[in-house]
Design goal:
The protein contains 16 helices and 23 strands. It is α/β, with parallel strands linked by helices. Helix 2 packs across helix 7, helix 3 packs across helix 4 and helix 10 packs across helix 11. The structure holds nicotinamide-adenine-dinucleotide (NAD). The site of nicotinamide-adenine-dinucleotide (NAD) has 28 residues, from helix 8 and helix 9.
Length: 490
């Protein structure tokens, strides 16, 4: 019998207020492995009320005590990393190494938030005038929520959750309905870490649950990661409702390859970036722009590494890449490749209509390389979110940076070169918030902000590190007068 994934409200697993469920699939096998509760406004209301009730005591809990729960969670995550990784591979399709890798990046955020006693500090000035001092304190907001995508079910919830609770908020997670098992396992560990009832809640579901969360008057802040149209929608609706919002959207990440780049190293790193996680990474290299003489050697070598990539079920030995998330996603990617061909692109490596022995029902798209992609074509501005690398060519570095900066997204831009001067020029001029130099996936560590720009981000403060602390706190400035003469009375 398939597992049923429930909500976690007030430290209880429950389906109160849930009227429907949806299937959860294993994308490598194309088979159902669970059902997930699809919550409506009623279930969301119960979760928000529980969180709101818990806030009064949680915000009074000293920050040094609040982080003790996170220290326990960190140990539990380390001890159970293999089990959670298995859930990621089963419902999201990643290889075991990729699943472990994303969990490591998630745990890094728990570790960073454990430093909250220092991170949350305000600042003070003594004697702004004689006998008058001024202080800035950070206080929590109340009930906050995060809505997360399917592609990093173990990591992305942890971009928000540890910072939210360490700063004294109560937090409700609404994970992607495509991958709820990983989050349920995370919340089993949260249960074992012993957080007080209501501090952390899990509400499963789709648009109905999201709308109820962003409309609820007791929810003070909304974090979102997902596609750009939904990011824009949630940002507009949440801010119209008077809430803080930070909404991370989609991407189309360009990478410049200069003629002096070491092609062996560059194509190896590019293959990991473009085809790792089956291209379903918001920091996946999606467009390679070769400059001048880099074109021929890069194209030839890239085609070789793409064709050699081993695709299969993530727990099988030697597998380097898994399936895409759903049959609908596979059909959409096939359609994008076909349309690009009609627009004049050359299919150098074709990943369509391939399968993996033993997993014929899986949602397979093999690595695909498209050459001669016109920078003005539909493909050039469409997020594929699959293992498809487009090749474009530029005459010089200025021409290449112009192509980079014409993109409407701004999640990541990278360059491969041995020239410090060219790298410095690119770093300065690239219109993107996460920049890589001889790096394929420029993912900021937990103590740096995840700095998407343009259509890749709606808001002011990003996820992670100090930005997370600022997002989840409101500043209180206190000016106090204590005339010296008053102390002479005693
Ligand atoms: P998605 O936008 O379809 O879904 C994300 C979340 O929003 C899910 O929890 C889903 O239930 C909810 N949702 C979906 N449609 C909604 C609607 N109409 N109204 C309200 N809520 C809705 O994204 P996805 O397919 O799960 O994830 C892939 C996308 O996420 C890609 O575009 C990728 O680039 C992006 N992403 C961005 C980052 C980043 O840091 N910028 C990181 C990871 C993924």
């Amino acid at each position: 019998m398939a597992t049923r994934v429930l909500n976690y409200i007030n430290n209880t697993w429950t389906d109160v207020g849930v009227t429907e469920s949806a299937p959860v699939m294993n994308p490598a096998r194309g088979e159902k492995i669970a059902d997930v509760a699809m919550s409506d406004a009623n279930a969301v209301g119960i979760a928000v009320d529980a969180a709101h009730a818990a806030f009064a005591e949680w915000k009074e809990t000293p920050v040094g005590d609040r982080v003790q729960y996170l220290f326990r969670l960190k140990v539990l995550l380390e001890e159970n990393i293999e089990e959670i990784a298995r859930a990621i591979t089963d419902e999201c399709g990643k290889t075991r190494a990729e699943s472990i890798g994303e969990l490591r990046r998630g745990i890094e955020n728990v570790e960073t938030a454990c430093g909250m006693p220092t991170l949350i500090q305000g600042y003070s000035n003594e004697d702004i005038a004689s006998g008058i001092d001024e202080h800035m304190f950070r206080q929590p907001l109340g009930v906050v929520t995060a809505i997360t995508p399917f592609n990093f079910p173990g990591m992305i919830p942890l971009w928000f959750l540890p910072y939210a609770v360490a700063t004294g908020n109560c937090f409700i997670l609404k994970p992607s309905e495509k991958v709820p098992i990983t989050t349920a396992k995370l919340f089993e560990l949260i249960e074992r870490a012993g957080f007080p009832a209501g501090v952390l809640g899990l509400v499963n579901g789709g648009k109905d649950a999201v709308d109820a969360l962003i409309d609820h008057p007791k929810v003070r802040a909304v974090s979102f990661v997902g596609s750009t149209p939904v990011a824009r929608y949630i940002y507009e609706r949440a801010t119209k409702n008077g809430k803080r919002a930070q909404c991370q959207g989609g991407a189309k990440n360009p990478v410049i390859v200069m003629p002096d780049a070491d092609m062996e190293t560059t194509t190896g790193i590019m293959a990991d970036s473009a085809f790792g996680c089956a291209g379903q990474r918001c920091l996946a290299a999606s467009v390679a722009i070769t400059v001048g003489e880099a074109r021929k050697p890069f194209t030839e070598k890239m085609a070789d590494v793409a064709a050699a990539r081993i695709v299969g079920y993530g727990f099988d030995d030697g597998v380097q890449m898994g399936p895409v998330i759903s049959s609908a996603s596979r059909e959409r990617i096939h359609g994008i490749i076909g349309a690009a061909e009609s627009d004049g692109a050359a299919v150098v490596v074709d990943g369509r209509n391939r399968t993996t022995p033993g997993y014929e029902d899986g949602y397979w798209v093999f690595p695909t390389v498209l050459d001669r992609v016109d920078p003005r074509s539909t493909l050039a501005s469409t997020e594929v979110f699959g293992p498809v690398l487009s090749l474009m060519h530029a005459s010089d570095i200025d021409d290449a940076i112009r192509i980079v900066n014409e993109r409407s997204y701004g999640n990541m831009a990278c360059i491969f070169t041995e020239s410090g001067a060219v790298a410095r020029k690119f770093r300065h001029e690239a219109d993107a918030g996460n920049v890589g130099i001889n790096i394929g996936v420029a993912a900021p560590m937990a103590y740096f902000p995840f700095s998407g720009w343009n259509e890749s981000f709606f808001g002011d403060l990003h996820a992670q590190g100090r930005h997370g602390v600022e997002f989840y706190t409101q500043t209180k400035v206190v000016v106090e007068r204590w005339p010296k003469t008053w102390s002479r009375k005693f």
